[in-house]
C-alpha cells in the first residue's frame, strides 16, 4: 500500500540533499550521555543528569517522541509552550517563525498536584518549522528538518486550524505523511477553536480531515484545542498518555528542553524582530551570538554580544530605526525576556550586519545548525 503512494506521489518529492541527517532520538540519547553538547548543564537547576535519569531501576516508565507537524502559523510552538508551562519556542503572528527542531519535555506524574509521588512517564515534543513551499536554501533546510522530525517520531500530531477549512497546504502535508510515514500513529489537532464561530462548518471540516487520513492503517483521533483558552488540552494529554509505550526517561526531570542558552537567547532576540518589523524584513533576519559571558561581574551579570544579520542596507536601516530607536527597542524588550529566562541581570549589545543572501549561504545556515 505504501509503495502505491510512493509511485503515485513521486512528482511531489522534495529535494533532500540540502542538510545532513538530523539526529535520531536514539542518537540524541547517546549524545546526552555527553551532556554538555546539548547545553543541558545550563538549563538544569541543581541535579546532574545521571541522578535524574536513573530514578528507580525497578520501576517502569512510559515515554515517546511526538512530532508537531503542520502549516506555518497554526500554533505548534504555542502548544509546546503551553504544555511545558514555559517559553521554549518563540511565537509570532508571522508565518515561518520556527526554523529549527525544538524539543520540549513534558513529564507525567503519578499525582499531578503532588509531584513528590513520582514521575511515571515522559513525553518529548518535537516542535518543527511550519511546512511550506521553500523559496530558498533556508526554506529547504526547514522543510528537511520538519520531514526528518516527522519520520523519527513515535507519534505524529498533525496540526491545523479549527477556524479554516482544510486547504492545499494541509493536503500537501497529509499526502507527504501518507507517502513517507504511512505506518505512523497520528492525532489530528485542530487548534484555535476559540476563533471557530461556524460550528456547522467545523463539523464538515472535521469529517474532511478524517477522510484525508482514512486509508491509513491506524485511524487517527481528532481533537479540537485552543492554546489560548486551554480547551481540549487535558483530552490531548490523556490521548498521548494512552498511546505512550513503555520506555526510558530520556531527559532529566528538570530539563525542559535540549536547547542551549545561546540558542534560546538568539531566538528571543529574533522574536522581537518578528514582532517589531513587517513584510520581508522578519524573514531576512538571523541572529548570531558572538559572545556569551556568564558571571561577568560580582552581581552575576551575563554579558551577551549579538549580531542581527540582514540581507540589504535598507533592511539594516529599518532595523536601526530613526536615531537608533528600533534597535534600542528590540534590545530592551529582548533583554527583559532573556533575564526572565536565565534569572540573572543581562547586558545585551546588539549590532546589525549586512550579510547578502545569507539565506542561500550554506555556511551561514550551518552556523545556525540548519545545514
Ligand atoms: N486565537 C488563537 N490564536 C492562537 C492559538 N494558538 C496560537 N495562536 C496564535 O497563532 C500565531 C502563530 O502561533 P505559533 O505558535 O508561532 O505558530 P507555529 O505553528 O509555531 O508557526 P511556525 O513556527 O511559523 O510554523 C501566534 O500569533 C499565536 O499567538 C489559539 O489557540 N487561538
Ligand atoms: Mg513555531
Textual characterization of the structure:
With 371 residues, this protein is an alpha/beta fold. It folds into two domains: 2-243, Rossmann fold, CATH 3.40.50; 261-367, K homology (KH) domain (GMP Synthetase, Chain A, domain 3), CATH 3.30.300.20. Helix content is 37%, strand content 19%. It has 13 helices and nine strands. It has helices spanning 2-8, 25-33, 40-43, 49-53, 76-84, 137-152, 168-180, 199-212, 233-243, 261-276, 313-320, 325-342, 362-367, and strands spanning 62-70, 102-109, 119-127, 155-161, 185-191, 221-224, 286-293, 302-310, 346-354. The protein has a six-stranded mixed β-sheet with strand order 2-3-1-4-5-6, sandwiched between helices. Helix 8 (199-212) links the parallel strand 5 and strand 6 (221-224). Helix 1 packs across helix 7 (168-180) and helix 10 (261-276) packs antiparallel against helix 12. The longest helix has 18 residues, at 325-342. The radius of gyration is 21 Å and the shape is globular. Mean pLDDT is 86; it is low at 1-52. Bound molecules: guanosine-5'-triphosphate and magnesium ion.
